[in-house]
Specification:
It is a single chain. The protein is an alpha/beta fold. It folds into two domains: 143 residues, NAD(P)-binding Rossmann-like Domain (Rossmann fold); 166 residues, Rossmann fold (3-Layer(aba) Sandwich). It is built from twelve helices and 14 strands. It has a seven-stranded parallel beta sheet with strand order 10-9-8-11-12-13-14, with helices on both faces. Strands 4-3-5-6-7 form a five-stranded parallel beta sheet, sandwiched between helices. The N terminus is likely disordered. The structure holds nicotinamide-adenine-dinucleotide. Nicotinamide-adenine-dinucleotide binds next to helix 5 and helix 6.
Length: 332
Amino acid sequence: MATIVPYTFEKKEDSAVYFTSFVKGMKVLIATEKPFAAAAVDGIVEILESAGHTVARLEKYKEKSELLDAVADIDALIVRSDKVTADVIAAAPNLKIVVRAGAGYDNVDCAAAKARDIVVMNTPGQNSNAVAELALAMMIFMSRNCFTPGTGGEIKGKTLAIHAYGNVGRLVGQKGKALGMNVIAYDPFVADDSVFEADGVEKITTIEELYRRADFLSLHIPATPQTKGSIGYDLITSMPKGATLVNTARKEVIDEAGLCKALAERDDIKYVSDVAPDCCADLCNCAGKRYFATPKKMGAETAEANINAGLAAARQIVDFFATGNRRFQVNK
Ligand code: NAD
């Protein structure tokens, strides 16, 4: 049994919550519509229970009502792509922290959490290698006509353009270089040029140049109000003959009407995506083998990524309750 140790919260002037004493005995819910690998769950439970917390699990749930019921008495929540909407937060009066085991946190209503001083964290970098490997695999798959008969192409010597040079983008660049690709990258938020220089990657300063030079364009921007629908007809049709757009980011960053128009007009451009866009049927009709989408989001679906992200989420919760550490908070 976990020990219940009294704890106190204090409010700072900026309304942030921090802890003034060691906290045990919190109830942590792992809510995963698509469960973690079994080894990841075992590790998460061990980390949390060893620190004196209790763990509840809600896996493969079908109805949102199941999640609403399960959060009623929890202090902390670990999710994967599960939607933590305002009503889920409202149904959890004791909730203090939500950790999204993964990089993107567009599935969590960060504003609703912030309004209640609930900390939202992600686990950056923990699943990046899995996504980067998928991106490279997709490039080869599309170059080889989706593994159907016919003469394909090689990725060696081609220009790999990376849109957003974060954890995944950087690994894609490293792997692309190892395969003999010429790597260029655009990320206006990476101010330090030495990051690109250290990787031997050419820094590009305009999005237009990035797309104009891309034999393979690998997308790694987060889905934000600024980026949603931002990749459309003009950028896609500015790519060179035979170019491939590879999307392991989020389907929402694509302007789908523009994508369909581009692939219908340009019979040399290819699109490959981790999870199908809403316009999947249209693309199948107009693009045939120039289009492929995974049946479910698969980027982070490796045992290694599951374990890395799940264990990191558990450790971050333990640390948060023990010391107030909010290093990975995303809703400041
Ligand atoms: P990250 O936070 O490490 O990197 C994101 C990068 O995007 C940062 O360097 C940031 O500067 C840059 N950026 C933000 N806005 C930009 C803009 N408007 N233009 C150009 N660059 C911009 O995240 P990451 O781990 O590299 O993951 C990137 C995205 O990939 C996630 O947000 C997520 O949506 C997606 N992802 C998908 C899967 C999957 O299963 N397919 C798994 C992990 C991540």
